[in-house]
Amino acid sequence: MNIVVCVKQIPDPAEPGALDPNTKTLKRDGKLILDESDSYGVEMALQLADAAGGGEVTLVSMAPNSETSGLRTALAMGAAKSVLVSDPALSGTDALGTAKILAAAIKRVEGADLILTATESSDGYTGTVPEQIAELLGLPSITFAKSIAIDGGTVKVQRQTEAGYDECEAPLPAVVSVTAGVVEPRYPSFKGIMAAKSKPVDEVDCAALGIDPGSVGWAGGGQEIVTVEAAPAREAGEVVEDDGTGFEKIVAFLDNLKVI
Amino acid sequence: MFDWTDEQKMLRDAVRQFIEKELVPIHEELEHGDTPPYDLLRKLFATFGMDAMARDGFKKRIEAEKAAAEAKARGEEPPAKKEREGGMDPSFTMIPIIELCRYSPGIVTAMGVSMGLTAAAISSRGTIAQKERWVPELLTMEKVGAWAITEPNSGSDAFGSMKSTARRDGDEYVLNGSKTFITNGPYADTIVFICKLDEGNPPAERKILSFVLDRGMPGLEQSKPLRKMGMHSSPTGELFLSDVRVGRDRLIGETEDVPSGGREGAKDTFSMERSGVAAMALGIISQCLELSVEYAKNRVQFGQPIGEFQLIQEKLAKMEVHRLNVQNLVFRYIEMGQAGVGLTLAEASAMKLYSARAAMEVALEAVQLFGGNGYMSEFKVEQLCRDAKVLQIYAGTDEIQITHIAKDLLRR
Prior knowledge:
- Chain A is of the alpha/beta class and about 260 residues long.
- Chain A is built from 8 helices and 11 strands.
- In chain A, strands 9-8-7-10-6-1-4-5-11 form a 9-stranded mixed beta sheet, with helices on both faces. Chain A has a two-stranded antiparallel ribbon with strand order 2-3.
- Chain A is globular.
- Chain A starts with a strand and ends with a helix.
- With about 400 residues, chain B is of the alpha+beta class.
- In chain B, the strands form 2 sheets. In chain B, strands 1, 2, 3, 4, 5, 6 and 7 form a 7-stranded mixed beta sheet that branches. A two-stranded antiparallel sheet of chain B has the order 8-9.
- In chain B, strand 8 (about 300) and strand 9 form a beta hairpin.
């Protein structure tokens, strides 16, 4: 059971983020960490490979400046190897461009039975890349998995919905996005941390993937960030003095919101 | 080395996350509720694979020892020791110590005594059979170990005033005595009991022997935890031995003629212990400093954050000097370990002396900086302050460290 997991390396949310005033995008020139939302996919992949009695988990990532810090975390958790796409031409790449790059990188991994992603990244939140990858690869796609099981050549997924979950299945290989929080990502073991530095990271650029740099990055982007505005301050709430009928006002307020 | 490597930072961050998730929610129970730390330690070991690594490491060492013993029995040269294959980086031990000590230095005490002192005492002098019998489960924390040397009337003068005895009785020994201030004493499964062989000769001439005892042996009584100033997450107790009968298989080394009479073995253990205290001090200092900086920025008095006052600034500056010095000692120890170079007794003692004093000073200053809040347990620095004090007392008091430094220098 060979599984590819798409992982994003993002600026540490614990550090104050900053926007590049020229590009109006998040600055990514510092150290990056593994997006927490991807750690669930990594954990799910490791569990599935384990349950299948073997196979490799391969990471696929796109990041500036040959950054591998976040990848090393996932490698320390137990992934076997990684493909990293790093190319200055990728700066400003939009969701579709990202999907093109990742799809091309996934093709470098031989014998992938299953491709896992998060449902969305914690710094971009477009939530469209998994389906775009599936389309580009011509593979079936299931989103918002809360549990995944492999049954022969089929992937069976409980797909989270607002009301509960749907039971879906698709032939392998397939692309499945994993909902955050459905598994508990393991801590990297000490042995895993020591081993991570020597695990292979196959770093490639656009040329190696056969991608025209003009079709990605700012040049190929179908979007332009025109302006960035500060979020409006929250308006002050209404203060109601309780004269003994406060509860009625609360009920009326909630009723007005149509939540009761 | 002037900073942690990316790999060490990954380890630190992972341990930190574990502590925030598993230790912090039960911190109150550990420090004020007599909850023993062993389940948490076992979880820590299992989570990071430290138990499996310890077992594998032990297996390799014991196989090498067996091969050497068999070669010797055949009258051959023992096989050359293998070069360390990228062996355990000392930082992999030091970092968990530092991180745990930010919250509960007592947990490190309990862990260190069990897998450090107790396992090391058997590993350094025991027979292969004894090591296989007791050491693996101590290294994985499956079993809790205690190392019993201190007695009501023998502290720093551990061997001179020692009253506990072993008497020969046929093929067996009969052990008597009482021990106190024994870390893990109330819960220990495996106890290394250090005593003097009573052959009717004057106490000063008696041989020092060490025996391994198991919980529940007839005549062995383990007290409830003693009340103490700090280190509440480390259970400390008394042991009472009344005619405990043991076979020679429990005498460490299975010989009464341990090289240097057993004293050197105990002193080796002291030396190893001292470098660990510096890592503990670094955890306490780092936490106190971080909490103090945050408090100095946010606590407003006389219309401004107290960090604006120079008397507060002086405290922060002194804390930072200590943090840098202790961190540098720890970095030096890690680099020496990576290079396979050991500390001299003077170095280990100096490292412990300075670090323990620094931790105490920093923690006291933190309490002072926090004022009334510092005296309240809610703000955490009072606990670290109480805990820090014992760093100047156990593993050899400050006064003993001074004499060891000086004696080591003077005998060269």
